[in-house]
Design a protein that fits this description.
Length: 317
């Protein structure tokens, strides 16, 4: 077993929290293991002035880290799994996933307790097309504004703006101990989370059995089966940051319940569907749910979205 490993990560506060958390979990099982954390800047970190939907890069927050992994500069890469494309580069794979944090989105608002309490025409910020679509499907009167940056940066921008509210993932806010900022934990029935939201994923080289064995101590089998279903659903729909897709699986005993969403950017059209089945069939369940939604018009909705995105402005708050 290796005595020293190098973890690759982005340099944001949240990314570093995740890398340090993984290091801490590994050292519980391997107290003598020496761990170095290496910060790697990604395209998504360098282009904060451009809307996510306009960059058009499925490896936005991962590609440069994966290059370091492939050439042996790092031993493993720690990601927010929702940022990791469903098709990985050749010779890389997901080596482990940690137990999922609460996957919900949250509302951060000025003087309002929930989405329902926002005044008519309220200004709401989000960098996510998935959130935009579901917000406008729920409240067509809202005005949506694009916002970028890491969690503390977005909160600071929001507090200094005339915006009424902002949507973020609970996991990032909670991990940075900013729970006091949360006005509402949004029910998943109202807003289906992003695929693998709240999950820390660890990417490794395919042939690195030593690292894979080491990571077996931190892998959470229940979370893994849920994200297998979600990522299969997303992959079949061929989605990414540039289209509004949500997918969320829960596990009860050996039964997975998987819900999916896609819709138009203005919220006028929305497709929601769900399926359930044995956890051993997680990948098949994701594929079948996506195919069922495709038969109901998901491809047409997503195609319409891509055309609209192409005409949207690049600038962000």
């Amino acid at each position: 077993m290796k005595n020293n490993i190098i973890i690759g990560t982005r340099g944001s506060q949240l990314a570093l929290w995740q890398a340090r958390f993984v290091a801490g979990q590994l050292q519980k099982s391997y107290p003598e293991l020496r761990i170095e954390i290496k910060i790697i800047e990604t395209t998504g970190d360098a282009r904060l002035e451009t809307a996510l939907s306009k960059i058009g890069d499925k490896g936005l927050f991962t590609r440069q880290i994966e290059e370091k992994l492939l050439n042996g500069e790092i031993d493993l890469a720690v990601h927010s799994l929702k940022d990791l494309p469903t098709t990985l580069p050749e010779n890389l794979k997901i080596g482990a996933v940690l137990k999922r944090e609460l996957p919900n989105d949250v509302l951060i608002a000025k003087n309002y307790a929930s989405i329902d309490d926002l005044p008519e025409g309220a200004k709401v910020a989000t960098g996510s097309l998935r959130r935009r679509s579901q917000l406008l499907n729920y409240r067509r009167d809202l005005q949506i504004f694009e916002i970028r940056g890491n969690v503390p940066t977005r909160i600071k921008k929001f507090e200094e703006s005339d915006l009424d509210a902002m949507i973020l993932a609970f996991a990032g806010v909670h991990r940075l101990e900013l729970d006091a900022k949360i006005s509402q934990i949004i029910p998943t029935e109202t807003m289906i989370p992003a695929v693998a939201q709240g999950v820390i994923g660890i990417e490794i080289r395919e042939n690195d059995s030593e690292i894979e064995t080491l990571l077996a101590q931190v892998n959470d089998a229940d979370t893994n089966d849920c994200v297998l279903a979600e990522r299969s659903f997303l992959q079949t729909l061929e989605g990414g940051c540039q289209v509004p897709i949500g997918g969320f699986a829960t596990l009860k005993g050996d039964e997975i319940n998987l819900s999916g969403y896609t819709g138009s950017l203005n919220g006028e059209f929305a497709l929601r569907d769900s399926t359930k089945g044995n956890r051993a069939d997680a990948i098949m369940l994701g594929r079948e749910l996506a195919e069922r939604m495709i038969a109901k018009g998901a491809n047409e909705l997503l195609g319409m979205t891509r055309n609209i995105v192409a005409a949207m402005p690049e600038t962000v708050v």
